[in-house]
Specification:
Transcription Regulator spoIIAA
């Protein structure tokens, strides 16, 4: 439910622009339900909405990106209908970063060129009054992917980058990509090896010795289901999915 009272900013997170991609990431919300939520917000006095999307997800195509354009257009029209003027929409575009212990821990991150192509489609398609776009520096997202799935050798890279002056690099104004490139070169490693490489399912992973409860077999199963756009039911409301946590949590059984 949406609160009454003073109307500050409101963030909605459709995340993707197509039903197919929702199924890939196992987060389905019917478009009509999302648009109904946005319409309710406008009816209750909100004029500024932030919409959160993620780019570069596995199996994503330009059709999915066009879906974002269409969805934002529908939200804008909804606000116009409710308020009699264009709403202010801030479109936040994050970059997908593969993470350990998830079904996408094996996938390659989308490269800088692919991300720039997506940004261009969105800039052209959403060139309208009241819509502002923002996204992180692609090189910073790539570095996040490197550090997320790195191995012990990256310790030397991090130390060398620090020696070169890299400290608060999560801040765009402090980020110096050249320091990191120089650090990788100094220790004989390549960032692309960690971020942009599709990993075989049987490749030993640096974090495989850490047991989070969820088994690798289950993650592989979920990865395959995502490639087929098959959703997995929420085990809080339906039967146990046998992810591995049932070994630790009797309530799962």
């Amino acid at each position: 439910s949406l609160p009454s009272g003073k109307k500050t900013g409101l963030t909605l997170a459709p995340e993707v622009g197509s039903q197919r991609l929702q199924q890939v990431i196992n987060k389905s919300t019917p478009e009509d339900e999302f648009l109904e939520t946005a319409a309710t917000a406008f009816d209750r006095g909100w004029t500024n909405l932030k919409l959160y999307f993620m780019l570069g997800l596995p199996t994503e195509t330009m059709d999915d990106i066009e879906g974002i354009v269409q969805l934002v257009g529908k939200v804008s029209s909804s606000g116009m209908k409710a308020r009699g003027k264009r709403p202010q929409l801030r479109i936040s575009l994050s970059t997908f970063v593969p993470k350990p212990h998830t079904p996408f821990q094996w996938v390659a991150q989308e490269g800088e060129q692919g991300l720039e192509a997506r940004h261009e489609v969105l800039k052209l398609g959403l060139r309208r009054k009241g819509v502002r776009l923002s996204w992180p520096e692609p090189k910073l997202s790539q570095l996040e992917a490197v550090l997320s799935r790195g191995d012990r050798r990256l310790g030397r890279v991090i130390y060398h980058a620090w020696q070169l002056g890299s400290t608060f690099d999560a801040w765009n104004e402090q980020f110096n990509y050249k320091n990191w490139l120089d650090a990788f070169e100094a220790v004989g490693l390549e960032a692309d090896f960690y971020a942009l490489r599709q990993r075989p399912l049987d490749e030993p992973l640096p974090w495989a010795h850490i047991d989070t409860g969820v088994t690798t077999a289950f993650l592989k199963q979920e990865y395959q289901r995502s490639l087929e756009a098959k959703e997995t039911p929420d085990c809080r409301y339906q039967a146990c999915n046998a992810c591995g946590l049932e070994r630790w949590q009797p309530a799962c059984q």
